Amino acid sequence: MPSVYDAIAFFALRDWVDLQLPASISLETGNKRLVKVVKLLCRQKGISFEWTNVAGSDRSRTLRSFFEMIPKPVQAIFGLARYLKIHWCFRQIKLTKWYESDADVTLISFMDNLDQSELEKGNYVSRYWGSLSESLNTSNTKVNYLHLFVRDGLIKNAKDALQAVESFNSSSKNIQTHMPLASFLNTMIIFKTIISWIRLAIKARSIHHQIDYIMRDEITPWALFIDDWRESFYGRTALLNVLNAGLFSTAFRSIKKQRFGVYLQENQGYEFLLISKWREFSHGTLIGCPHFTVRFWDLRYFFDPRAYIESDALRLPLPDKVALNGKCAVDLFVDWGYPYEDIVEVEALRFEYLALELAMPHEQVAKYDTDIQRSINVLVLGEVDWVKTVSQLEMLQRAVLEVDMPIDFVFRAHPNCPIDLDQYPALKITLTGKSLLEDLLSSEVVVCGSATSAVVDAACVGKKIISILDSTNVNASPLRNSPNIAFVTSERQLADALQAFQAQPLVSFDITKTFNIDPRLPRWKALLQF
Question: For 102, which of 95, 128, 171, 228 is 20 to 30 Å away at the CA?
Answer without folding.
Answer: 128
